[in-house]
Write a structure and sequence with these properties.
FAD/FMN-containing dehydrogenase; alpha/beta; signal; Glutaredoxin; about 160 residues; 5 helices
Amino acid sequence: MKALCSLILGGAVVLSSGCATAPQPVANASYVDLKGISDQHGNSFAFAEQMQTLIFVRDMDAKDLVDESLSNVNRQCLKVGQVVYLADISGMPSLIANFIAIPKMRDYDYPIWLDTEGDVSASLAAREDQVTLFAVSQGDFTNTEFVATETQLTEKLQALCGVN
């Protein structure tokens, strides 16, 4: 059953990501307002002042990079909002999101902030199959980086959060 759910979820994301238009990148020193965003447990976002790094994913391959990297990282930094993980799931069919993907995400021991409508993350820079890391200072983006490998992402997240 798990294999079937993963197959359906993966297929839905692949199909929906092909329909999305390319987002306009956010320039350095820009800001994204995460008010109104909830995590996989329905908690409202309340970490604007604590946030130092925003991890952003728009597709399944990037999500997989984050999942693999976080297994080697002290995830406490995500729980306290120092590092914020935002996933754009707006392209996913709502039935799959609500009945398969989000319930599966509830098994993770860290918050994944979900943009279900795509409004919040529409202007965030993203590259296919890569994770976008935004450095944040006093609410403003100060640097944008694209990470393509698990090793690179793990090194960067361990530098921010420590080793698991």
